[in-house]
Each structure stands twice: as structure tokens, then as C-alpha cells.
Design goal:
Layout (H helix, E strand, L loop, with lengths): L1 E9 L11 E6 L5 E2 L2 H8 L3 E8 L5 E7 L4 E6 L7 E6 L11 E6 L2 E7 L5 E7 H6 L9 E4 L9 E8 L2 E6 L4 E6 L5 E5 L4 H10 L10 E7 L3 E6 L3 E6 L4 E7 L19 E4 L2 E6 L5 E9 L5 E10 L9 E8 L11 E9 L2 E9 L7 E7 L3 H7 L8 H11 L2 H13 L9 H22 L2 E7 L3 E6 L4 E7 L2 H7 L8 H13 L4 H16 L8 H13 L5 H11 L4 H13 L17 H31 L4 H27 L1 H12 L11 H17 L6 H12 L2 E2 L2 E2 L4 H12 L5 H13 L3 H8 L4 H4 L6 H8 L8 H5 L6 H15 L3 H17 L7 H17 L3 H10 L6 H13 L4 H14 L9 H13 L6 H13 L3 H14 L4 H16 L8 E4 L2 E4 H11 L1
Parallel strand pairs: 1-27, 2-7
Antiparallel strand pairs: 1-30, 2-3, 4-5, 5-6, 6-7, 8-9, 9-10, 10-11, 12-13, 13-14, 14-15, 16-17, 17-18, 18-19, 20-21, 21-22, 22-23, 24-25, 25-26, 26-27, 28-29, 29-30, 31-32, 33-34
Length: about 1050
């Protein structure tokens, strides 16, 4: 049974696209430099040879890694890997014997690094803690020193062990020990220990025979700063007095084993650990053996070792696990009956890791038990089960990209390019093929990224594994009772909930992933109101069965489910589920440490563990609801519980989709809602971690369905702040709309549907957005119901948001007409003219109906001007004329003159508009004239100013306009002016005489048959004589 679960802690997981760590390269020749973003991205994908971390005196952790064949040392802060500085130190040569001759520790506000280089030099580097954590202060030339305290080419170093700030011990390959004591700030004094290894080494140099070599050390540890404990490759345990540099005693740990079982260690490593006075040693016998002993002083004050017990590893004899690391720690709260100490063990098989805990029940170390861990994160498990793949390639893409760190995705795409794998994603089938190949590569890369290097016990309790990839770690979480049930679902158990869940899990496993998704969507539809609200819960669940399961699930599977559940008290189980496993009433904000500064490690670990917990709980809720769909329950008894489960299921779905879309943004929202300083917590213990998880989950489940604060944070970024000018800042709004807002909005909710309209507009889905903008009477109903993010815009008089004018329209007396007008402007600015016209007509309609409201004159003019602009855009000139003729009380003379001028002069409008003018005048049946005198004069003046000789068309327009408006004499005078300009064109002159004569002939009274030419009166007879003379 597993009691711990793996949490991925890739520190880049919550990195925003624009965030990059400040990477500094240090070289011993002084050429330090910052590097580009592209180099930083490439830098984060470098394979690491060794990775570990140390705790500083201020409680922060510094990670250090060796790479580039042990020539590059990288250092970064665990809590600020992205916001802080990553330091790359380029060593002049590779380190001796990999990482075993490198030590790192804190001293006097600095981190000191000692490393023996392969060419024999002893390199010491000192970096101020502030320089590592905060990138403050420049390094001076004394930040490193290179010494040659001993001829390491003759006697080759094998291990380097720190005893104190000024004293280290070098374990040599010939089995000897060399002390290095700092005699001043510069020199190191070599001190040989009292053994015969030096003489043996000299003998081997001058002898042709291979003398028996004393076993070289494979690991060492310091006890009480006075004694050195050495384990040799022959499994000899040696105790050395560091005061006298003499050997106290030697123990052959292999003595109790058969000769055939004994073998040497393959490599050096952390094969011996000491906790207080208890020492645990790993022996490479059989499948691995752990020998427990005690260090104590005899009556003479001499240090002695006493063997207590020998425990074989709990691994299959056929397995190929290799020992990697171990830590002996105080007992964790592992839900066991008794515990004295815990031995945390890390094994590897290729790139696959295995973590175990050996729990010692008491101080006699004879009773023990093995605690197993789930060595794959829930993300890995779900990926292997094909949970990412969907019929919808967009949804599959979202799943995959949310599951893996950005650097993994980039490396996968690089591999595609290197191997010339090109898949044209122009069809749904090709997209699915690409995504399937991509996930296969990502799984392999993820395994490689997660390969373990060492264990760190974070805050003396939390188990962290350092991985062989930059910024990549894993954390093992102690399971809650609920998580224990989830991870051990296949085991027999007495717990009723566990048996119940096991039955449900067995049934749901018979369904395809696509069927499960469809059923899940139907559960969401119940909560959102997409399913008819007039139906009872029972009717809704029955409808789900008919639409998704009927005829698709085996009768025998249903019968088995019914038989297994018939003996269970379902109502009691559901009550217990909520009270014990979903919502805890015993956790509070003061049960954990609120961070003052954002801690990237804590944030990543908490985000991943919250997500995993909610995914588990959602799966259980789904299977419970599924059983209710399949079986014939008395719904009236369960209705309140089912409604509660459905609502929680909806909130779980919302959370998971937000997490997939943008985990960093979701974490920011959670931090604001659940921590005192809006930056989350600082992990300090398993208990506080667990309390925080439950507190966050409680908070999430208590959020209202409407105006969920986590959703609003996404809405603020993806919708409100996603437009600058007329352009979108980014296209992620489409995914937010597709996967979150549209499927999850509350139907008929005024707030939700108004916000949906805004997002549809931002996504340039203008038609649909208009439908939602007009669905409710928002102007009167939303005024005091706006969520805070919209209220802030409405209250900010200096806001530059495109939504400001819409939101402020709610506060005026003519809110309906102003709202529609502002909406029309929005669509007009986005060149969606048809929708803008609909909106402005709606606005004018409100203005005409609300006669009891006094409308501002400037608003009315702006409203009509926009209306005119849109009518002109669509060449709706009859309506244009109506607006201009009938709005004298709204539109000033100057405004009307401006529009008439544009309409009569602009090449786009002048011909069709003038035709409409004539037709309208000629077809006008009411008493009086079509145009008022003011409008007639404006148009007449424009046409008159446009007359140009020999342009007959301009003259004809003026003539036609005057005739259509019953100004016959003036019409004839226009022709006369044209006639006077036709000096040589006899045909044009004759035409003009005939027109003038015909016009004047229509006047019955001869005294009225005249026209003016300047100050001269010309009578009809005179014109006839002139025509005769002309003929």
C-alpha cells in the first residue's frame, strides 16, 4: 500500500511567457556576462550530471548542479529560480571523480564551494548569499582561489569531505586520507593521517608487483565534528579521531555474510548516513542490505560502533534497481501505528525512480515496515491512460500543453525538426496524428527530465528529489486518507467508502473516454441551465442515460454494479464523503505560514498538489453521479445531495480548465483569495501543506456559481485587458471562450451573459456577441450587480478601457438609449456596420419611447450623426433624407449642411443620393413640399456652386431639383445661365430655349411668363422671337 505520492515540481511550470531567469556566466578569466533569452531557454534544457541542494541559515535553499561533463557548475535559489539569478560557473577543467570531490556549504554570509579539478588543482569559490539570492553586489577578483596543496597527480583524490569551515578531508584512491587545514586566508596545510597508505602508494610506484591496496573510501561522514566515519569499498567501517588523525577501530560489515554474497561497491555515493548517534549503511549484497548500528563512547571515552540489525532491501530479486541516495530522518506522520526513525531511500532503474521509506518502529530497530510511494505523478498516470486524447484536437492540444513544462514542449518540437518529422495539420485527422506523436515524445522526455540524482529533506521533513534537469525537482507528499484510497483503489479494504469507490471505479472503467466526456458535459449542463430547468433532477439524470448510455453499456455490467451496491448505505456514504473528504470545517487561515514574498517552489508544489487533489475528487464525484444515472434510485431522497455534488463538480471542472489554460494566472488568483499577503504560503511542514490544500479546496468549493473570483481574474485578463486600440493583445481569448466561458456560463444569468457578450466581442465573434448584448435589459438591471473588475472601470473617470463607455452608461437617466448608442460605437469602430446600425436604431427607438426623460442635446446630435453615417455606409439614402429633414430640432443647420455637402459632392454618394432626392420629391404625396425651405436652400446652394460650364449635367441637376421642388421659374433661370454660356454651340442653345419656353408656358397668366437675367426681366414672347431668329 502506498502512503506517499509524487508531485512534479518543475520550477518553470508557473513561468509566464515573458519571464526569464537572469542568467550570469562566471569564468575564472573574469569574462562574466549575461546571456540572451534564447540562450536561457537552451540553458534550461541542458542535461545535468549531478544535482543537489543545501539549506542556508536564513531558511532558503540553494540548488547546485554539475553538467557539461562536470565542467559547468550551476547555482540557483529554489524559491526564486525564475525571478532570481541563475549562476553558471565555467570550471577550467572537469572535477575529479565526478561530483564526489565537490563540497558546498555556507560560512559567514557566503556560500563556499570547494572542488578538486582533474588536473590536480584545489579550487575554492566564495559567493555572497545576497549575490545568489538577490543578485546584489558585484563580485571582486578574490571570489575564487586556486591552490595546489598536494600532488594529486601522484595520489589521486577520490572523495572530498568537509569537517568545518577551515578543515576538509580528502579520501585518496589508494585508501589514504589527507587533511587540508586553512593556515591563513591563502594557504592550505596538508596533514597525512596515521596509516600506511602513503608507504603502500610509494611501494606501488617502484614495485612491479600489484600490492594489496587498502580499500578506498566510498563514502564518509563527520560525527560530532570530532570523528570521521569512513566506509570502504570492501565494506570496512573505519572510525577516525580528527584530533589525533589516528584510526580508532575498523569493523568488517561483511563478516556476517557468505563469501558468495559479498561484492564490492560499484561507485562512491551517499552510502552511509548518521542521525544523532544512529548510523545506517547500505551494503551491496544480495539485492541490497541496510545495516543499522549505534555510535557510542565506552567507559574510557573512546568512540565505538555497535551493530544493531541488518535489514534486506524490499525489492524483487529479479529487479535491476540501483541504489541512489538515502536520508535518515525523524519519523513522518505516515498513518502507521508506531515510528521511531524513518530511512528515506531512492533507487533508480535507468531513468525510472523509486522512493521507499523504511520505518523503524522503535529504538531496538528489530521491528520495521516498508512504506511505498507512488512514483509517478497523477499527471504521468493520466497521460499513460490516454486521458489527454480527445475527439476534439483543440481540447487535446490544451491538455497536452498544460501537462508539460514549456521547455519540454520546445525540446519535443526541436526533435521533430531534427528528425524532419513534418505533419501538415490541415485536417482534423492530421492534427490528431501530430498530437499523438507529440505526446509520445513528451512522455519519453518527461521520464528523462524526472531522472533522480539525490534527496533533499526540505525543512527537515518534506522529501524532495533533485532531478537531472535544470530547475526540475520532485516532491513526495504524504497522502491524506482520501488520497490513500485513490492510489490504492485496487487493494482490498475494510473502509466502506473505499469499497464503494472501488465498485464505481470498476464500472466506469468499462466506458470509453469519449463517453465519459459526454456524460461529464451533461452533468455540467444541468448546473449551467443548458438542460431545461423545468425538469426534476431525476428526469435530467434519466435523460443523460438515454442520450449517452442506453444501448452502449452492457446489461451484465449494470447488474454487477447493482449487486455490489445493494448492501451499501448510499446516503450515509454521500454524507460522509462531503464531511470527511471534500469539505473540512477544521482548517483555518492561521494553520499555515503565509509568505511575505512569493516563493516559486512552494507555489509550484502547492499548485500541482491542489490540482491533483481536485482531479481525484472530481473523478470520485463523477463515478458517484454516474452510478445514480445508471441505477434506479429514489431521487427525492438524494436530490439535495445530488444538487450539492453537481455544483461541486461544476466548480471542479471550472478550476481544472482554468489550470490547463493558464496555471500561473490561476495561482495568482488563488494566492489573492487564500493568503494574507496575496503571494501564497511558505512550505514548512507536511501538516501545514495539508492544511493549506484543504483550506484552498474549501475556498474553491464555497465560491458562488456567478462571479467566481478565479473566473473573474481570467475574464479581466483575457477579455477586459485584451484589447489595446482596435487590436487584440493575444489570441488566447479564443481558448478561454471555447473551453471555459462558453460551456460553463450560467444560462439566463444577466451577469454571466453580459460578460459572455464581452468575450465574444473580444474574440471578434461579433454576431453572437450582439445577440447576447441585446438579450437582457442590462442598462437598468446591471447597475448594482457588476463584478468588481467591471465596477472599477465604471468608477474610474480616467479609464481607457473600451468598456468604460458601456459601463458608465448604466448610471444616467437615459441609460437604455445611451447603452445602445455606446454599443453601436463599439461595433462601428470594429467595422461591424450592420450590427452598429441595429444598435443605433435600438438607441433611437429608446429615445423616442422614453418621452418623460429629458435627453442631452449633444447626445441626441451624436446619436443622429452616427445613425446618418451608418445609413450612408449602406446607401440607405431614403432614410438619410428622412433623418436630415425631420431632425431640425436635433441637428443644427451647419451639421445638416455638412452632411448634404458630403452626400452631393462625394463620388461614393452623389449620384445615387441625388436620384433618391428627386424620386422622393416627385413621389411626395403630402401637402406642402418635401423639403423645408432651409433644407431646400442648402441643397440649392450646393448644386449652384457645383455648376461648371460646359457641364450640362450639373446644370440639369440644379434644374431638376428646382423643378421637383416647385421652383419652376428658378429652374428656368438655371437653364438661362447655362444658355448664356453656350456661345457657339447652336444645338445646346436651341435645347435651352425650348426648355425655358416650355417651363414658362406652363404659367397660365401671361403676366407670370417671365424670368430674370440679373436685373433684367425677360418675357416669354421675347424668348420665342429669339428662338425664331436662332432657327
Amino acid at each position: 500500500m502506498t502512503h506517499l505520492s509524487k508531485i512534479d515540481a518543475n520550477l518553470l511550470q508557473l513561468r509566464k511567457a515573458k519571464d526569464y531567469s537572469n542568467v550570469v556566466n562566471l569564468r575564472l578569466d573574469g569574462s562574466d556576462q549575461n546571456i540572451s533569452k534564447e540562450q536561457i531557454q537552451s540553458n534550461s534544457m541542458v542535461d545535468v550530471d549531478y544535482s543537489s541542494s543545501i539549506e542556508l541559515s536564513n531558511g532558503e535553499y540553494v540548488c547546485y548542479q554539475l553538467s557539461a561533463n562536470y565542467r559547468l557548475l550551476t547555482i540557483y535559489s529554489l524559491s526564486a529560480a525564475i525571478s532570481g539569478t541563475t549562476i553558471n560557473i565555467h570550471l577550467p577543467d572537469e572535477s575529479m571523480n565526478k561530483h564526489h570531490t565537490l563540497t558546498i556549504f555556507e560560512i559567514g554570509g557566503s556560500v563556499q564551494i570547494n572542488v578538486i579539478l582533474k588536473e590536480g588543482s584545489y579550487l575554492t569559490m566564495t559567493l555572497p548569499v545576497d549575490y545568489i539570492l538577490n543578485n546584489v553586489n558585484e563580485l571582486d577578483q578574490s571570489w575564487f582561489t586556486i591552490k595546489t596543496p598536494y600532488d594529486f597527480q601522484v595520489r589521486v583524490p577520490h572523495l572530498l569531505c568537509v569537517v568545518s569551515a577551515d578543515f576538509s578531508v580528502v579520501c585518496l584512491e589508494d585508501g589514504g586520507l589527507l587533511g587540508l587545514k586553512a593556515s591563513n586566508d591563502i594557504d592550505l596545510e596538508p596533514i597525512l593521517f596515521n596509516d600506511n597508505s602513503y608507504l603502500q602508494s610509494i611501494t606501488r610506484i617502484f614495485s612491479r608487483k600489484n600490492a594489496q591496496v587498502s580499500g578506498k573510501a566510498v563514502t564518509c561522514a563527520v560525527f560530532e565534528e570530532k570523528y570521521l566515519v569512513i566506509l570502504t569499498e570492501q565494506a570496512h567501517l573505519k572510525l577516525w579521531d580528527l584530533a589525533t588523525f589516528s584510526l580508532i577501530e575498523t569493523h568488517d560489515l561483511s563478516s556476517e555474510f557468505e563469501t558468495s554474497e559479498i561484492r564490492r561497491y560499484d561507485t562512491a555515493g551517499n552510502l552511509l548516513v548518521i542521525y544523532q548517534n544512529i548510523i545506517t549503511t547500505f551494503l551491496p549484497y544480495k539485492n541490497g542490505v541496510f545495516q543499522i548500528g549505534r555510535l557510542s563512547f565506552d567507559s574510557n571515552g573512546i568512540l565505538r560502533y555497535t551493530s544493531i540489525s541488518t535489514i534486506p532491501a524490499n525489492l524483487s530479486s529479479s529487479s535491476l534497481w540501483s541504489f541512489t541516495d538515502m536520508k535518515l530522518i525523524r519519523p513522518l506522520d505516515l498513518n502507521v501505528n508506531a515510528a521511531y526513525l524513518n530511512l528515506v531511500l531512492l533507487w533508480k532503474c535507468g531513468a525510472v525512480n523509486k522512493l521507499q521509506i523504511l520505518n523503524f518502529v522503535n529504538d531496538e530497530f528489530q521491528e520495521y515496515q516498508w512504506i511505498e510511494a507512488t512514483n509517478k505523478s497523477l499527471n504521468d498516470i493520466e497521460s499513460e491512460m490516454g486521458k489527454d486524447l480527445s475527439e476534439d484536437s483543440d481540447f487535446t492540444s490544451l491538455n497536452i500543453k498544460s501537462r508539460y513544462a514549456p521547455e519540454l514542449l520546445q525540446e519535443a518540437e526541436t526533435l521533430f525538426a531534427k528528425n524532419q518529422i513534418i505533419i501538415a495539420m490541415n485536417t482534423e485527422k492530421s492534427k490528431k496524428e501530430y498530437l499523438a506523436n507529440l505526446e509520445t515524445i513528451l512522455k519519453d522526455l518527461k521520464n528523462k527530465y524526472d531522472e533522480a540524482s539525490s534527496i533533499t529533506i526540505y525543512k527537515n521533513e518534506i522529501i524532495m528529489v533533485n532531478c537531472l534537469k535544470k530547475y526540475n525537482h520532485s516532491v513526495y507528499k504524504i497522502n491524506s486518507t482520501f488520497e490513500d484510497i485513490f492510489y490504492n483503489i485496487g487493494l482490498e479494504a475494510d473502509d466502506e467508502l473505499c469499497r464503494y469507490w472501488k465498485v464505481l471505479n470498476r464500472f466506469s472503467s468499462t466506458l470509453s473516454e469519449e463517453t465519459i466526456r459526454k456524460i461529464s458535459d451533461e452533468f455540467i449542463n444541468i448546473v449551467t441551465g443548458e438542460t431545461s430547468k423545468s425538469m426534476s433532477v431525476g428526469e435530467k439524470l434519466s435523460a443523460i442515460f438515454k442520450s449517452t448510455l442506453q444501448g452502449r453499456v452492457g446489461v451484465s455490467d449494470i447488474e454487477t454494479l447493482f449487486k455490489d451496491m445493494s448492501s451499501m448505505n448510499i446516503v450515509n456514504i454521500m454524507n460522509e464523503l462531503i464531511d470527511r473528504y471534500l469539505i473540512s470545517h477544521s482548517v483555518h487561515n492561521d494553520d499555515f505560514v503565509n509568505a511575505i514574498v512569493f516563493d516559486e517552489f512552494s507555489a509550484v508544489v502547492c499548485a500541482q498538489s491542489i490540482h491533483q487533489l481536485i482531479v481525484m475528487q472530481k473523478r470520485l464525484l463523477f463515478e458517484i453521479l454516474l452510478s445514480v444515472v445508471v441505477l434506479d434510485f429514489e431521487y427525492s431522497i438524494l436530490e439535495s445531495k445530488l444538487n450539492e455534488f453537481l455544483e461541486i463538480y461544476y466548480k471542479q471542472t471550472l478550476f481544472i480548465r482554468l489550470y490547463k489554460l493558464n496555471a500561473p494566472l490561476l495561482v495568482n488568483g488563488l494566492n489573492s483569495e487564500t493568503s494574507n499577503y496575496n503571494v501564497g504560503i511558505k512550505l514548512t511542514s507536511y501538516a501545514e501543506w495539508s492544511s493549506y490544500l484543504q483550506f484552498v479546496v474549501n475556498t474553491i468549493y464555497k465560491f458562488a456559481l456567478e462571479s467566481n473570483p478565479l473566473f473573474l481574474r481570467f475574464f479581466d485578463i483575457y477579455t477586459i485587458k485584451n484589447i489595446k486600440g482596435k487590436e487584440r493583445v493575444w489570441t488566447e481569448t479564443d481558448k478561454f471562450l471555447q473551453f471555459v466561458q462558453y460551456p460553463l456560463y450560467q444560462r439566463d444569468s444577466i451577469i454571466d451573459e453580459f460578460m459572455l457578450a464581452m468575450t465574444l466581442f473580444t474574440s471578434q465573434n461579433y454576431e453572437k456577441s450582439f445577440d447576447f448584448f441585446m438579450k437582457h435589459d442590462y442598462a437598468t438591471q446591471l447597475k448594482n450587480k457588476l463584478p468588481q473588475c467591471l465596477t472599477d472601470i465604471a468608477m474610474d473617470s480616467n479609464s481607457k478601457s473600451i468598456w468604460s463607455s458601456i459601463l458608465t452608461s448604466f448610471d444616467v437617466s437615459h441609460n437604455r438609449s445611451l447603452y445602445a448608442y455606446k454599443l453601436a460605437l463599439l461595433y462601428f469602430e470594429r467595422n461591424s456596420m450592420a450590427l452598429s446600425l441595429k444598435a443605433i436604431k435600438k438607441s433611437i427607438g429608446y429615445s423616442m419611447k422614453e418621452t418623460e426623460i429629458t435627453l442631452p442635446a449633444d447626445f441626441l446630435e451624436d446619436q443622429h450623426r452616427l445613425h446618418l453615417d451608418l445609413l450612408m455606409y449602406f446607401n440607405m439614402f431614403s432614410e438619410v433624407l428622412d433623418v436630415l429633414r425631420l431632425s431640425h430640432d436635433i441637428l443644427s443647420v451647419n451639421t445638416r449642411e455638412l452632411y448634404f455637402t458630403t452626400l452631393l459632392n462625394d463620388a461614393r454618394f452623389k449620384e445615387p443620393f441625388f436620384t433618391t432626392v428627386l424620386n422622393s420629391c416627385n413621389s411626395f404625396k403630402e401637402s406642402g413640399l418635401f423639403f423645408r425651405s432651409e433644407d431646400f436652400k442648402v441643397i440649392d446652394d450646393i448644386l449652384l456652386s457645383n455648376m461648371e460650364f460646359p457641364n450640362w449635367l450639373s446644370c440639369k441637376k440644379l434644374y431638376s431639383f428646382r423643378m421637383a421642388n416647385k421652383h419652376e421659374r428658378a429652374a428656368a433661370e438655371a437653364i438661362l445661365q447655362y444658355l448664356l454660356q453656350c456661345e457657339n454651340n447652336l444645338q445646346e442653345k436651341r435645347k435651352c430655349y425650348l426648355i425655358i419656353i416650355n417651363v414658362l408656358s406652363t404659367f397660365e397668366d401671361p403676366s407670370d411668363q417671365w424670368i430674370l437675367n440679373g436685373n433684367s426681366v425677360i418675357m416669354l414672347p421675347e424668348l420665342r422671337r429669339e428662338l425664331q431668329e436662332f432657327n
